[in-house]
Amino acid sequence: MRFLHIFSAVLLAGGALAWRFGAIPAAEPLGDDLRRKAGDAMARAWRPFVFFGIAGILISGTYNLVRKIATVPLPPAYHMVIGIKILLALHVLAVMFLVVRPGNEKRARQLTGVVFSAVLIVALSAVLRWLTQ
What we know:
This protein has 133 residues and is mainly alpha-helical. It contains 4 helices and no strands.
């Protein structure tokens, strides 16, 4: 389950990072209509991976959290940090649903938010590992 969680997180965060800072700037020289069509084609191709990543995060994250709570006594700070991490993860998951919709004019801005949230999630994951040692 830990592998599934990390793989799904890398899939979503890495995909958002590559799309926002690789594919979108590469499409800038195209005309507006062609750029919109290319963006929608990328969204269509990326959609199954987003759905797999979301399912993987939700399933493995729930399992990992329940298992951790049941087996290890956790300090109060752990609950605060995991709560913040879950809220950021829900932001990422919700926005990724929006990003893969066709005709989304705010895709670049939304992907930027996903990337920043993903970086914060990784940092909070490191804090959580430190709190349980």
